[in-house]
User: Fold this.
Amino acid sequence: MQSNYKRLGDYIHPIEERNKDLREIPLMGLSINKVFIPSIANTIGTDMSTYRIIKREQFAYGPVTSRNGDKITIALFDDYDEALISQAYFPFKVNDKEKLLPEYLMMWFRRPEFDRYARFMSHGSAREIFSWEEMCNTLLPVPTITKQKEIVAEYNTIQNRIKLNEKLIQKLEETAQAVYREWFVEGIGENFEKIKLNELVQTQYGYTETASTEIIGPKFLRITDIAQNQIDWTNVPYCKISESDFEKYKLKPGDIVVARTGATAGYGKRLHKHFPDCVFASFLVRLIPNELKWNLFLGLTVDSQAYREFILSNAEGSAQPQANATLLTSYEIDKPDESKILEFNSIIEPFFDLIENKQQENQKLSELKDLLLSKLATVNN
Assistant:
């Protein structure tokens, strides 16, 4: 062990504050992506006085690790001055920010090596727990505060560039969707033919992993990845798949996929990013246009609010909506003629070219960010 490695427990302590006065402040949860997210838990009739209070620049983590795959749920809170979190989470804070920066510590928690360590050190029979004692026994390099600030600044520069690109991508997608609505939803005086999507596409259900498949293969694409319009490659699980099935279910740029189960049933997306070594899972359906010219139009169709509302209103089940390929392609549209669709493509394609460019840039920035995290293990004063 290097001389600048220190025991984490010497720098942090737990927080015990509860919501005894029933403050009306945001209720937050933790994502496996290591960020805080607004909680969607039903709290009607719940005793909110037992909930914990967390404040800015404090941490929380989920001690139960057996249900999270290879990740430990942990995050640094910076959304509000204070918020509520469930009793299931364990909050803590840094003792002295002049000795250990919370942002630097969060960088250590983002490393895949920390996840592996936390899973290895988790214990229990019915469920595995990464205890507070084990958290405190974690060793990490603690250079001078000046060096920590330099490392955090470098990391934030990369992260801010990624966020800026993500905002641009979102704006470009919103603009493309607005053009689509203007041309094909709100257009006046157009004499379009009424057809259903099944006349323009073929469908393919996603891959179902089986216990008998022994080959460790590519990564899955999951419903939440489609809904959030982003892929965290450190968090996408690997699946077992044969070489022939890999070729059958491999995702390609321009693929249109739609979620058919759960809360995001009917959420569709045209994938304008390369997905290396990635297949789509069984709860997704791929829509394959009969002709390439329909690709952009159909991608924007299934990415519309009207499409999602149609699927959810017709899906079976209430708590967990279920839709099949027949329902996903029964949506009726106004079919434009060939000249109209070709003109539309000429206007929209540059938007998606720029989106692709920015996504590739973000992929390289993410690799640079991962490299910076990996170098933390050898950082010196």
